[in-house]
Design goal:
With 237 residues, the chain is α+β, with helices and mostly antiparallel strands. Helices cover 47% and strands 20% of the residues. Strand 2 and strand 3 form a beta hairpin.
């Protein structure tokens, strides 16, 4: 049984620390003033156009058009890519990284956010390939391309202190490998972040050995569905 002093030391080092998220610069003022509400996705307003884009690509693929994109390490069709983007828009949660290096790396490879980059990729490919489409269909594609480019650019990194009670209802998105060279497989556990008392309850549920292993590895994301007030958010200068 792990004693109270050892638990407190572990909590101070691995829980009561910043957890990070990168956001597009265009969202900075909104989040700074109003916090983060996972149910209010800034992409909701383009959801009807994204559904139309999915129908356009599906129609083209039935007519013999082929769009192959490298997507998550595999080659996928354009229709598959758009459906995945729609899934992203429909999600009502946000993920926080366990350390700053992860979000700094993410910011470099998907400046402006993964969804904006993906929309730009798909619409740009259509504009380059010039398949036979109506004027209205081209208007949808070009407007989505313009919207995505407005979001692409500088990123800001925010963080929340790990002892915040707002994090207690979250889930740890734990990444595991089944075998060598295989893809990561997600596993979900109750968040140990929040108060020390909450942390002890989670330790009791899973055991100190298991929790300490994945917290030390930092191979996880913290998934939050609750609204995060602006006062809980801090910014990296």
């Amino acid at each position: 049984m792990t004693n109270e002093k050892k638990l407190q030391q572990f909590y101070n080092k691995y829980i009561n620390k910043p957890i990070y998220r990168a956001i597009p610069l265009v969202d900075y003022n909104e989040i700074k003033n109003n916090g983060i509400d996972p149910t209010k996705n800034p992409y909701n307003k383009i959801k009807p156009s994204m559904k139309k884009l999915a129908n356009i690509i599906l129609k083209l693929e039935k007519e013999g058009y082929s769009m192959k994109l490298k997507w998550g390490g595999v080659f996928a069709s354009g229709n598959f890519a758009v459906k995945n983007m729609l899934d992203d828009i429909n999600r009502e949660f946000i993920d926080f990284a366990s350390n700053k290096k992860q979000v700094e790396f993410y910011s470099k490879i998907v400046s402006g956010g993964a969804l904006a980059v993906s929309i730009k990729r798909v619409t740009k490919r259509l504009m380059e390939d010039k398949p036979n489409l109506t004027n209205h269909e081209w208007q949808i594609i070009k407007q989505l391309n313009r919207n995505s480019q407005k979001r692409i650019g500088s990123m800001k990194v925010l963080y929340i202190q790990g002892n915040s009670k707002i994090l207690e209802k979250g889930l740890i998105h734990l990444l595991k490998k089944k075998k060598k060279h295989s893809k990561f497989e997600p596993s979900y556990l109750s968040s140990p972040f929040g108060s020390f008392e909450h942390f002890k309850r989670v330790i009791t549920k899973y055991g100190f050995r298991k929790c300490s292993y994945w917290l030390k590895s930092e191979n996880y994301y913290l998934r939050i569905k609750e609204k995060i007030p602006a006062k809980e958010i801090r910014w990296i200068k």
